Automatic annotation (TrEMBL):
Belongs to the ABC transporter superfamily. The keyword Transport applies. GO terms for molecular function: ATP binding. It comes from the Bacteria. SUPFAM superfamilies: P-loop containing nucleoside triphosphate hydrolases. Pfam families: ABC_tran. Residues 25-254 form the ABC transporter domain. The lineage of its organism: Bacteria, Pseudomonadati, Pseudomonadota, Alphaproteobacteria, Geminicoccales. Keywords: ATP-binding, Nodulation, Nucleotide-binding, Transport. It comes from Benzoatithermus flavus. The keyword Transmembrane helix does not apply. This is ABC transporter ATP-binding protein. PANTHER family: ABC TRANSPORTER ATP-BINDING PROTEIN, ABC TRANSPORTER ATP-BINDING PROTEIN NATA. InterPro entries: AAA+_ATPase (IPR003593), ABC_transporter-like_ATP-bd (IPR003439), ABC_transporter-like_CS (IPR017871), ABC_transporter_ATP-binding (IPR050763), P-loop_NTPase (IPR027417).
Length: 270
């Protein structure tokens, strides 16, 4: 069973933001084009420290492209990105050790065992006491039964948990999560969400979450950014969006935006 007890017990009281502390993410006028295809257009948003912000939108909305640009994996066509106060991609080498990500679309080396993969990433991030860190993650994320199994021989759900362990290996200040509970059964997914909540409480990390699970977003996110066709079309806390659209859950809000429904106030939803 996934075990958050030690994480919760070690959680300090929430810290106040430092005076003058830059936001975790600052995006201004961000665009990405592939010839005539526009993946992201004039995107701007801010993610404050110690917050969980959800990046939502239908397939093709630009979520994965945006995350790739935030990580410095893709160069923007135009616009600026600052991560933890550093201009990207120029300052990438300064911030990458302080951040990490997980995505079901990014695999680890298939022939290496789970343990070997985690050791590689612990070395890449210069993790102190890597053996102890890997053991703690294996216990918390229920990986102990297949640590010595090649990654390529794992089930989809097991891979998801290993990828999350990789993302947490360096205890990042900024965590980018792309579908972090993909392929997990409801019980395991619920425990993973609890683990993420405990991790954020303990470390005061900032989280940017892309998910199609609206219940997950309502539980974890303080703020929601709604994308469509590469543009930011609405934003607010989950409660604000539910009130604005007159809906009982975020799935209905999502459908309103995806299907170009009008809001109850008569304005276009997107």
């Amino acid at each position: 069973m996934l075990d958050d007890a030690k994480l919760l017990a070690a959680a300090p009281q929430e810290a106040m933001p430092l005076s003058g502390e830059p936001p975790a993410i600052l995006v201004e006028g961000l665009s990405k084009r592939y010839g005539e295809v526009v993946a992201v257009e004039d995107l701007g948003f801010t993610v404050g420290r110690r917050r969980t912000v959800a990046l939502l939108g239908p397939n093709g909305a630009g979520k994965t492209t945006t995350m790739a640009m935030l990580l410095g994996l893709l160069a923007p066509t135009s616009g600026t990105i600052r991560i933890l106060g550093e201009l990207m991609p120029k300052g990438r080498h300064k911030v990458l050790p302080r951040m990490n990500f997980t995505s079901p679309y990014v695999d680890l080396p298939q022939r290496l065992t789970v343990l070997q993969n985690l050791k590689v990433y612990a070395e890449l991030y210069a993790v102190p006491r890597p053996k102890e860190r890997i053991a703690a993650l294996a216990a918390a994320l229920d990986l102990e039964g297949f640590l010595n199994r090649p990654f390529g021989r794992l089930s989809a759900g097991q891979k998801t948990r290993v990828l999350l362990a990789k993302a947490l290996i360096n205890e990042p200040e900024l965590l980018l999560l792309d579908e972090p509970t993909a392929s997990l059964d409801p019980d395991t997914a619920d425990q993973i969400r609890g683990h993420l909540e405990a991790y954020q409480a303990r470390t005061h990390a900032t989280v940017l979450l892309a998910s199609h699970n609206m219940g997950e977003v309502e539980r974890l996110a303080h703020h929601v950014l709604m994308l469509k066709q590469g543009r930011l079309v609405d934003q607010g806390s989950p409660a604000d969006l539910l009130a604005r659209y007159g809906r009982d859950d975020l799935e209905e809000v999502f459908l309103d935006i995806a299907r170009d429904r009008r809001r109850p106030d008569g304005r276009e939803s997107a």
